[in-house]
Amino acid sequence: MLDKAPNGKVSDLLNALDKALSAGEVEHAVDLFQTDCYWRDLVTFTWNIKTMEGKEQVRDMLTARLADTKPSNWKIADGEDASEADGIIESWIQFETGVARGFGHMRLKDGRIWTLLTTMSELKGHEEPVGFDRPMGAKHGAERNRKTWKEEREAEAAELGYLRQPYCVIVGGGQGGIALAARLRQLNVPTIIVEKNERPGDSWRKRYKSLCLHDPVWYDHLPYLPFPRNWPVFSPKDKIGDWLEMYTKVMELNYWGSSECKKASYDEKSSEWTVIVQRHGKEVVLKPKQLVLATGMSAKPNMPKFEGMDIFEGDQHHSSQHPGPDKYKNKKAVVIGSNNSAHDICAALWEAGADVTMVQRSTTHVVKSDSLMELGLAALYSVQSGMTTSKADLIFASLPYKILHEFQIPVYNAIRERDADYYKRLEKAGFLLDYGDDDSGLFMKYLRRGSGYYIDVGASELIANGSIKLKSGVDVEKITEHSVILSDGTELPADLVVYATGYGSMNGWAADLISREVADKVGKVWGLGSNTTKDPGPWEGEQRNMWKPTQQDGLWFHGGNLHQSRHYSQFLSLQLKARMEGIPTPVYGLQQVHHLS
Ligand SMILES: Cc1cc2nc3c(=O)[nH]c(=O)nc-3n(C[C@H](O)[C@H](O)[C@H](O)COP(=O)(O)OP(=O)(O)OC[C@H]3O[C@@H](n4cnc5c(N)ncnc54)[C@H](O)[C@@H]3O)c2cc1C
C-alpha cells in the first residue's frame, strides 16, 4: 500500500482527535499522543499559558477542561499543507472551541502527536474590526451637530478616567504597555496607560546614549504595524522611542504621560482596584477591574550595597541611570558587571576617551551579533526566512520549554566552533566565559534568568586587545573616596563607578505599588524553574507569572523583549476581553508560588 502524503496523515489524525474530543472520550484522545508528548496551550483550553508534558498531564487537563471547552472542527489550517522531514510531520492547524477560534501547530512522530500548540486567535462575537470589517471612518449622509473623529477622540480622552472608568489600567507605558493597549483598543476594552515619563518612548530615550537594539528588526515588530522595509536592522534607541510615540498616537491609545502610579489596592468584594495616580501633579483615583504591571522586567535596578559608597567623591550610578560618556573624557571609569549594559557602557566610555576597567565577578556568555543573527535567528527572523512574523512567533512558541535547550545546544556548539579563535582571544585577556549551564546559550539564559550574556557588537574586541581593562574573578570589597578596592586587594582609582548589576524580579513592583503581601502572594516573576543558575526549581514549564493569571485576582504582569511583548499581548488581551464580556474563564493549573523573588 502506498504511504499517505503528509496532508492525509495529519487529516486522519485530526479527524480522530475531533471525533474523540467531540464524544468526550478522553482516553481515545490521549491514545493519539506519543508517550513523550507536549501540549502547549495559550488560553484556548486552560484559560492559562500552560504546557502539559506527557500523556498523564494531557489526560488530567482534558478530564478537567474538555466538557467546558467544547472543541470542534479540527483541520489543517486553510491554505496550508503539512510537510515531512526527518521522520517528523508538521502542520499548521485550526480548530474552534465553544467561545473562540483557534490556530495552532502540530508535529507527528510515528503517527502520533509529539508536540501540539493550541492558541486563541479570537473570541466568537468579539472579533477585531480589521480587514473588511474595519471602521468606515467617514460617516456618509447628513447629521446635525455631528462630531468629527478628532472631536470624538478628544471627548474620549477627556472623559476616560474622570467621567467613566477604564476596565483596565496598565502601569508602565514602555513597549510592553503600548503593545497590550493597542490590542485592547482593537477589542474595545477601555484602557488607560499610566506612565511616569513625559512621552511614549522615553524609557528607551533615557537609556545610555550609545544603545541600539540588540535584536534585529525582524524580531522587533509591534502588533498591527510592522516597521517599514527601510528600517535599520538594529534600531537606535531614540529612533525606537520615536516609533513608539508615533505608534501610540496612530493606534489611538489613551496614554497618560507624566502620570505616576503611587499606590494600588484591591477590594475583593467589589473585585475592583483603587489606583492612585499623580497626573501632572494632581491626584486622580482610577477604579479599574484589571490592573496590569508593565513596569519592565529590566527596570527595577539591582543596586548593590558596598561599604564606602556613601563617601565616594566621584560620580556613581546604576547602569539604568548612566547618562552616557560625554563628561568622562580622560577620567577613570570602573564598571562593575560584565553583561550587556556593562559592555555597551564600557565601549562608549572608551570611545569618548575615558580610561575604563570592567570588573567581572563571574562568567558571562558572549556571542557575536552576526553569528547570533546567522545561526541563531535567521531560520525564523530574517529577511531570508520568507516567513511572516506571526508564524515565526508561533513556531518558536511550539517548541516546548522542557526540550527547547536540546534545539539550542547544537546552535551554540556551531557558534563556538565558528568563533573558536575569538573565544580564545577573550579567554587570553582573562575574560571568564560560559555558554549557559548546559551549553544551551543565549535564549535559554534569557528565558531562565533574563541575564548573564552579552551580544557582542564591538566591545569584546576592546577587551581582547586590552583597550578596555579587565579585572575578572573578583568582587568589590569596598569603595573609598576615590577608588574601588577589589577582593584580591587591587585598588582601582575611579572618577566614575557604574553599577551594571542588573535588575530585580517584577513582583518587586507589586511590593512597591500594592503591598509586600501581594508581592509574596504572587511570588517570583520570570524564569522556568530549570534549576540552573538564578532559575531555581521546581520545574514550572512556563515563564513564572508572565501574561497569565496570578495568585492575585485582577493582577497581571506583561513585558519582555519586543518579540514577547508582541506575541503574548495577544493572549493577555483576549484573557482580559473575555473577563470584561463575562465569558467564564476557569483557569486550569494556576501558577503555584515556590519563590518570593
Ligand atoms: C540596556 C537594555 C537593552 C535592551 N535591548 C533590547 C533589545 O535589543 N531588544 C529587545 O527586544 N529588548 C531589549 N531589552 C529588553 C526589553 O525589551 C526592554 O527592557 C524594554 O524596554 C522592555 O519594555 P517594557 O515595556 O516591558 O518595560 P520598560 O521599557 O522598562 O517600561 C516600563 C515603564 O514603566 C514605567 N513605570 C515604572 N513604574 C511606574 C509607575 N509607578 N507609574 C508609572 N509608570 C511607571 C517606567 O517609567 C517605564 O517607562 C533591553 C533592555 C535593556 C535594559
**What's the total count of β strands?**
25
Tally of individual helices: 18
The unique ligands bound to this protein are: flavin-adenine dinucleotide
Assembly of the depicted chains: single chain
Helix content: 25-40%
Fraction in beta strands: 15-25%
Sheet with most strands: 7 strands, mixed
- What is the CA-based Rg, rounded? 25 Å
Distance between the termini: 59 Å
Task: Summarize model confidence as the mean pLDDT.
Answer: 95
Residue stretches low in confidence (pLDDT < 50, at least 5 long) are: none
Estimated structural class: alpha/beta
Structural shape: globular
Task: Give the helix/strand layout.
Elements (H helix, E strand, L loop, with lengths): L5 H17 L3 H6 L1 E10 L6 E5 H16 L2 E5 L6 E3 L2 E9 L3 E10 L2 E12 L25 H11 L8 E4 L3 H12 L4 E4 L7 H4 L11 H4 L16 H14 L4 E2 L2 E9 L4 E8 L2 E5 L3 E4 L21 E4 L13 E5 L3 H12 L3 E6 L4 E4 H9 L11 H10 L2 H18 L1 H9 L12 H9 L3 E4 L2 H6 L4 E4 L3 E4 L3 E4 L4 E3 L2 E4 L7 H7 L2 H7 L32 E3 L4 H19 L17
Parallel strand pairs: 1-7, 8-9, 8-14, 9-10, 14-25, 15-24, 16-17, 16-24, 17-20, 18-19
Antiparallel strand pairs: 1-2, 3-5, 4-5, 5-6, 6-7, 11-12, 12-13, 21-22, 22-23
Helix pairs in contact: 5-18, 10-12, 12-14, 16-17
Flavin-adenine dinucleotide binds next to helix 5, strand 11 and helix 9.
Describe the protein's architecture and organization:
With 597 residues, this protein is an alpha/beta fold. 32% of the residues lie in helices and 23% in strands. The protein contains 18 helices and 25 strands. Strands 1, 2, 3, 4, 5, 6 and 7 form a seven-stranded mixed β-sheet that branches. Strands 10-9-8-14-25 form a five-stranded parallel β-sheet, covered by helices on one side. Strands 15-24-16-17-20 form a five-stranded parallel β-sheet, covered by helices on one side. Strand 6 (100-109) and strand 7 form a beta hairpin. It is globular, with a radius of gyration of 25 Å. The model has no long low-confidence stretch (mean pLDDT 95). The protein binds flavin-adenine dinucleotide.
